[in-house]
Amino acid sequence: MRLDQGWLLADPVDAPDLDGALAAAPVIGIAVLMERHRRDADAIAARHGAGVGAALPAGVETRRVVRFPGWHEIVLWLPGRRLLVSADVLGTIGYFLAADDERLGVHPLVRPFPPRRALRGLAPAAVAVGHGPPVTEDATGALSAALRTARSRLPAAYRHAWRMSRRARGRNYSA
Fold it and tell me: Is 157 helix (H, G, I), strand (E, B) or coil?
């Protein structure tokens, strides 16, 4: 994401034109939101003289949202922009959702223990997620609903994910 001081990258993946896309401003930091998402962070940091996991710029907060064995995750909160950035705990693609009308969901493995306390009091204008398109309309309402209904809609979420996987298996992917 582009900040006043430069680029702050989250869980970056290297791509052929990445350096050109970043050339307009310095890379001021690289945040790794999940330990499994380190990916190309070190190589990108070395090329741009940035730190991985170093002190974040002013106006960027972190909140720990998952602390399971083998899964530690933080989110980035930019209060000045009202932007919440999530790697895996929140998503907008099908297997995160309990129904087609749900816009933002808690990861199926985290639904029994949604990060309500960690995200309490946030009123995002947008939620950027690692899996699916961002939520840019009534993001506060979508976040509130996702956290509030995570447990109660757990059976529906698992049924929805199962139905989606059945549909996907029925498709012909050889074409």
Answer: helix
Query: What is the average per-residue pLDDT within 51-64?
Result: 89
Please say whether the beta carbons of 112 and 154 come within 8 A.
yes
- Cα gap 74→142, rounded to integer Å: 19
Contacts 24+ apart (CB under 8 A), 152-158: 153/98, 153/99, 153/102, 153/111, 154/98, 154/111, 154/112, 156/98, 156/99, 157/96, 157/97, 157/98, 157/105, 157/108, 157/111, 158/108
pLDDT digits (tens, 9 = 90+) for 27-37: 999 999 998 88
List of residues 6+ apart from 166 with CB closer than 8 A: none
Beta strands in 90-165 (DSSP E): 90-91, 105-106, 126-128
pTM reported for the whole predicted model? 0.90
For residue 44, give every residue at least 6 positions away whose Cβ sits within 8 Å of its Cβ, in sequence order, or none.
9, 12, 14, 18, 27, 30, 50
Tell me what the pLDDT averaged over the chain comes to.
Answer: 92
Based on C-alpha coordinates, what's the Rg of the chain?
17
